[in-house]
Every structure is written in C-alpha cells, then in structure tokens.
C-alpha cells in the first residue's frame, strides 16, 4: 500500500471539522434552519388536528387553523430550501478553496514527496475526492439534523396526543436505528480498504493512459491492459464484498421506516386503541401525518450512510495532502555571479536504500560535464540534487560560495534550467508554455524558439505562438521536447542540466532534439552544462565525464583519457559499439 492509499485511513472528526472550517458558520446556520424547518412542519401537521376538530366536532371557524397549517408547512419548506441553498453555496466555495489550497500544497511540496505519491493517486484526490465532499457539506449535515429533529418533534407531539401510539411507532424506528448503527460500523471498517482499492485503480488508469501509445508501438499494450483489468477486478470484488452483505439489512431498514409501514402501524394500532376506547378517532389523523413525516429523513440517512463514509475518507485524503510539509525554508541569497558547482561528500538514500554514496566533485563555470553509468547507478538522482529538486541526505551543494539551499528559490529557478526525459505541455498557448506566465515577452519567445530550432514549425501553425497546445494542434514528441528546450532558453540559464532528454524518442526525433540542444548551447556560451546520458557517442566531446556505478564515482576524465583506462567507461563504450571486450579488462 503506497502513501496515497494509506492516506485513506479512517478519519477523525477533528480532521473533517478542520477541512470544512472555512464554511462552518454557513453549515451551522443551515443546521439551525433545518431544525426550525422540522419544528414548523410539526406545528403545521398538528394544526391539521385542530382543523379536523373544528370541522367535525365543534363546528368552529376553520380559518385560523388553515392559516396555521399554511404557515407551518410552507414555512417549513421555505426554511429547508434556504438551508439547502446555504449548504450548496458553502459546498461550491469550499470545493473552490480546497482546490486552490491543494494547488498551493502541491506547489510547495518537495520533489521527493512526489516520488512516494503516484500521479494517479494525486489526481484522484484533487478531482474525485473534492467532488465527494459535496455530499458531506451539501447534504449530510442537514439530513442528519432532519433525521434527529423531525422524529424528535414528532415524538413530542404524538406523546401529547397519545403516548401509547408513540410507543408502538417507536418499535420500527428503534429497530431501524439499531440496523443503521451496525451498518455504519461495517462501513467504517471497510472504508480504508475501499479507498486503497480506488486509489490503486486510479494509479493503473493514469499509467495506462500515459504509456499505452508507447507500448502499442512495441506490441506490448496487452500486459498493461491486463494490469488495469486486474486492478478493476480487485476494486469491484472489494466493493461487492462490502455491499452484498448489507443489501438485506439496508432493505429491511428502509422498509421498517417506509411510509407504508408507518401508516399501517398507525391505522392498525390506532383502530385497536379506538375500539378499546383508549383514544379518539380524530387523534389518528395528526398521528398518521406525523408518523409519515419522519419516514423521509430516516430513509435518507439509511440511503446515504455509505456515501457519508466515502466523503469522510475523501476528507482524510485531502487533509493529508494539505498537511504535506513544504520545502525547507526558502533561501534569500541572490544567484552567485560565478556559477561553478561544488558537491562535498553528498549522499542520498530513499526508504533506507542508499542511492548515492559520498559524492565529491567540482564543476567549473562554463564547463560541459557528462554523467554516465549503467542503469540504477544514480545518474538522475545526482542531476536532480544539482538542480535542487532533491535535498541530499548528507553533504552539501554549493553554487559559487553560496549553499544551494540558501539561494532564493525564484532566483535559482531562473538561473538553473532542467530538461528531463518527459516534456509536458499545458493546455495553453505555445507562448505561455514557453514562458509559464500569462504575460510573455514576444522578442524573448522568438529568440528562445530560434535557440531551440523550433521557430520553423511554430511559425507554420495556424496562429503561430498563440496556438493552443492540445486543442488547436497536437505536437509530436520531438516538437514537445524542442518546446521544452525553448522553455529553458527563455530563462536563459546560467546552469543547464539535461537528464537524458532523448531517451524516449526515435532516431529521427533524437536528431531534431539534438539539433535544438546544440543550437541552445551555441546561443548561450559560458553556460555550465551537466548532461546525463546513456548514449556515450553524444557526450564524447564533454570537458569531463563522470562515471557512476552503484551510487559512487568510479572514474572521471575526458573521453580519450577514460578510453585509455581499463574500466567501466571503456566497457560501456565497447558494448554500445558492439566491439569485443579487451582481454585485459578487469585488471584495474
């Protein structure tokens, strides 16, 4: 069970209260209005008894009773409508506020947090769980209030009329409440597992949508489809194992407080009481009406018990993201004028597993340095530490003579460009995708496109840089990477870190991306460049090549120097060129 799924443990009331705090006064006002609505409805129904007495017994003027009935019933409906309007407005404002708060929390969350929380689980929280809060805020509180207030007022009124009829009516209501408590306990027990199954399914759906085009090109989409079907089957099986045992008690509970059941009890027991001389026939009219008035509130609680548990589970998942600790205190130092990079005894581990072990190196300003090594050597982790996406477990990183963590975050992001294996375009204009702002500079955009060798295909678009990505045009993988290069060029960067930007593209696209990178480097002389690559022929001209293996630096030097040595770099080079291994390999 991953961290996102674990966040759906049984919520505590304080967590739900904390989440809805911004709208709590409107919710409380709606609760008060709902209770007052139930009181008015009860008064209106009692007035029916007075009307019956006036018409059938005393022959008194009925108009006062008619006014009382109208004021009570219409007032009750109007107050409940006002309560529902308040809760729905509160729900809309709360959902809007929660999404903004989630965006802020995700923006300040450290990069390592996202490594432990798959994108599918996060999307489920931001989209589905926020939507599920609608039931909690818009319906649950007022429904619960009505389920308590309506029977309470009705019971008080019936007790005044004939307490014996109240005792008879209490039997099915108490039985329904008993069943409801048992089902609520089952729902609370099952909710964490349901959230975990739903989260796992969301992760599989996201991975399927993200990777199915690539896997289809290799004829391997079937494996991913099988995983998705298994996750869906686990979700459905878990839900059915939860729901099936509750079908009978839920049905029984609903029938116990249904209008037909309550009316039958009033008529049957009332007729017996009248025959025995215990009560008057006119007393049965308000008792029947009051009995029917409690059916809908009690049935609503029975129908919404599971939805309420789901909403509470969603509240817990949302609150866990909101409580995510942000990055360490933001630095205040400007970016140093000399952009050399120094790593001193840097180590990094994740979940107790060492990834990097005591890395010490210096990269001079303006140098072009490559990081190579076998899969799992720690290349990407080292690149992300240099960028500042990951904080090392121990050791220090300096830019010039200033610790990386002490540099102002905005200044650091403006001076350090990072281009990874995946490039993402927003559903926005090309210009906004390059600048990541709503106020782009056209001259700088044009220069960035030229630097990325992307000007030609952008100018050929219907609205050039104003074309909306994903709506007006769908960009190829190579075009997306070149727009990502243009995004870096727009800064322009003092330090450029390239983490295998051509690892997931075909040969033709790789050529286009490499042309864009070469153009970018030519347009920004003096930029300190760090390139992570598994294709050694692309970094042979680097000033220095760092060879990683199992998280440690095992070799460092220029291409020709490393080839002259008997070591890992030469083995990797020969393997890529499919040359036979040197018989002296392994002597050093």
UniProtKB/TrEMBL annotation:
TM spans (from-to): 29-51, 63-83, 141-159, 165-181, 256-276
Pfam families linked to this entry: ABC_membrane, ABC_tran
PROSITE patterns given in the database record: ABC_TM1F, ABC_TRANSPORTER_1, ABC_TRANSPORTER_2
GO cellular component, one term: plasma membrane
Keyword Membrane: yes
Top-level taxonomic group: Bacteria
SMART domains, per database record: AAA (SM00382)
Topological category with respect to the lipid bilayer: Multi-pass membrane protein
Domain ABC transmembrane type-1: start-end pairs: 29-310
Ranges of residues in domain ABC transporter: 341-575
Keywords (A to Z) from UniProt: ATP-binding, Membrane, Nucleotide-binding, Transmembrane, Transmembrane helix
InterPro entries the record matches: AAA+_ATPase (IPR003593), ABC1_TM_dom (IPR011527), ABC1_TM_sf (IPR036640), ABC_transporter-like_ATP-bd (IPR003439), ABC_transporter-like_CS (IPR017871), P-loop_NTPase (IPR027417), Type_1_exporter (IPR039421)
Cellular compartments annotated: Cell membrane
GO MF entries: ABC-type transporter activity; ATP binding; ATP hydrolysis activity; ATPase-coupled lipid transmembrane transporter activity
Listed name of the protein: ATP-binding cassette subfamily B protein
Main location: membrane
């Amino acid at each position: 069970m991953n961290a996102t799924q674990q966040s759906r443990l049984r919520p505590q009331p304080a967590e739900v209260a904390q989440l809805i705090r911004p709208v709590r006064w409107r919710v409380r006002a709606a609760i008060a209005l709902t209770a007052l609505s139930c009181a008015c409805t009860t008064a209106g129904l009692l007035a029916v008894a007075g009307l019956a007495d006036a018409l059938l017994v005393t022959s008194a003027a009925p108009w006062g009773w008619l006014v009382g009935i109208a004021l009570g019933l219409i007032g009750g409906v109007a107050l409940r409508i006002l309560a529902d309007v308040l809760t729905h407005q509160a729900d809309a404002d709360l959902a809007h506020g929660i999404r903004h708060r989630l965006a802020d929390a995700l923006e300040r969350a450290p990069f390592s947090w996202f490594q432990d929380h798959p994108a599918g689980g996060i999307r489920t929280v931001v989209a589905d769980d926020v939507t599920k809060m609608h039931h909690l805020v818009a319906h649950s509180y007022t429904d619960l209030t009505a389920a308590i207030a309506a029977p309470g007022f009705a019971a008080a009124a019936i007790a005044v009329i004939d307490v014996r009829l109240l005792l008879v009516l209490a039997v099915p209501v108490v039985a329904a409440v008993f069943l409801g408590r048992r089902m609520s306990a089952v729902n609370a027990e099952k909710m964490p597992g349901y959230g975990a199954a739903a989260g796992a399914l969301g992760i599989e759906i996201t991975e399927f949508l993200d990777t199915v085009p690539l896997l289809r090109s290799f004829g391997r989409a079937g494996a991913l489809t099988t995983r998705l079907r298994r996750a869906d089957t686990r979700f459905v099986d878990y839900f059915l194992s939860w729901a099936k045992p509750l079908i009978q008690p839920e049905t029984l509970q609903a029938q116990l407080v249904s209008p037909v059941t309550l009316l039958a009890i009033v008529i049957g027991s009332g007729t017996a009481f009248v025959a025995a001389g215990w009560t008057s026939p006119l007393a049965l009219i308000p008792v029947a009406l009051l009995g029917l008035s409690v059916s809908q509130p009690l049935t609503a609680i029975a129908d919404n018990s599971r939805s309420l548990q789901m909403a509470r589970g969603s509240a817990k998942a949302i609150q866990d993201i909101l409580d995510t600790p942000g990055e360490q205190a933001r630095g205040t130092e400007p970016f140093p004028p000399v952009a050399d990079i120094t790593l001193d005894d840097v180590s990094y581990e994740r979940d107790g597993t060492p990834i990097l072990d005591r890395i010490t190196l210096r990269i001079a300003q303006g140098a072009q340095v490559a990081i190579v090594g076998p899969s799992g050597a720690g290349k990407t982790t080292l690149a992300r530490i240099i960028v500042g996406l990951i904080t090392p477990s121990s050791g220090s990183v300096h830019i010039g003579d200033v610790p990386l963590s002490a540099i102002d975050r905005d200044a650091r992001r403006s001076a350090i460009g990072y281009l990874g294996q995946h490039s993402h375009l927003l559903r926005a204009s090309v210009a906004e995708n390059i600048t990541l702002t709503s106020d782009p500079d056209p001259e700088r955009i044009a220069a960035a496109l030229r630097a990325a060798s992307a000007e030609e295909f952008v100018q050929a678009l219907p609205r050039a840089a104003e074309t909306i990505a994903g709506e007006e045009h769908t960009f190829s993988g190579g075009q997306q990477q070149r727009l990502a290069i243009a995004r870096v060029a727009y800064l322009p960067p003092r330090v450029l870190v390239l983490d295998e930007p051509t690892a997931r593209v075909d040969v033709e696209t790789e050529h286009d991306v490499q042309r864009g990178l070469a153009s970018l480097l030519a347009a920004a002389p003096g930029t300190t460049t760090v390139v992570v690559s598994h294709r050694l022929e692309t970094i042979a001209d680097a000033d220095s090549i760092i060879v990683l293996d199992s998280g440690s630096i095992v070799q460092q030097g220029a291409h020709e120097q490393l080839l002259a040595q008997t070591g890992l770099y030469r083995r990797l080079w020969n393997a890529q060129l499919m040359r036979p291994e040197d018989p002296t390999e392994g002597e050093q």
